[in-house]
Amino acid sequence: MEKTIEELIQDLKSTDEFVKEETMGLLEFNAKESVDPLINALKSSDKEIRKGAAQALGLIKDTKAIEPLINTLSDGNKLVRREASTALSHMGEAAVDPLMETLKSPDWKVRGAAVWALGAIGDSRAVGSIEKLLNDEKNFVVVGARYAIDAIKNPKKEE
């Protein structure tokens, strides 16, 4: 019997890495049907489901998930925030403008997650906005801004 998308989402909290890996693959394979339930799962009370949903949305790369993922950057759990940031970095150019707007957040955790995502994307349009964070009050944001600027100005060559 095949599992429903909702059952797969529940499997995101499994402690079995093989189950999680298979679940991610099935969610990605069924991307069209998975996106909306995964976006809803970002609001789950279970941090493992939120974390897995963000990760799966990053694999699927549907731009509909950008705004919900940006909202997830303020999650109370740092691992969920990290997965949301990583997922946004997989969205590429489509996420740049919303992420640049997020750099203005009063929440340093949100600014930090956004700046790291922008560095991973590597779009030069973000440099000016990122440079404004070099004097941020929080070291996490400053380190992220330095990393992002370096990553954008000195991209690694693919081997």
What's the shape?
Answer: elongated
Estimated share of beta-strand residues: under 5%
Profile the largest sheet.
none
Q: Which class of secondary structure composition applies to the elements?
A: mainly alpha
Q: What do the pLDDT scores average to?
A: 95
> Span between N and C termini?
43 Å
Q: Could you spell the SSE succession in H and E letters? A: HHHHHHHHHH
Q: Which segments are poorly predicted (pLDDT under 50) over 5 or more consecutive residues?
A: none
Proportion of residues in helical segments: 55-70%
Description:
It is built from 10 helices and no strands. The chain has helices spanning 5-11, 17-29, 31-41, 47-60, 66-72, 78-91, 96-102, 108-121, 127-131, 139-153. Helix 2 packs across helix 4 (47-60). The longest helix has 15 residues, at 139-153. The mean pLDDT is 95.
Break the fold down into its secondary structure elements and pairings.
Layout: H1 5-11, H2 17-29, H3 31-41, H4 47-60, H5 66-72, H6 78-91, H7 96-102, H8 108-121, H9 127-131, H10 139-153
Helix pairs in contact: 1-2, 2-3, 2-4, 3-4, 4-6, 5-6, 6-8, 7-8, 8-10
Task: Briefly say what this structure is.
The protein has helices at 5-11, 17-29, 31-41, 47-60, 66-72, 78-91, 96-102, 108-121, 127-131, 139-153. It is mainly alpha-helical and 159 residues long.
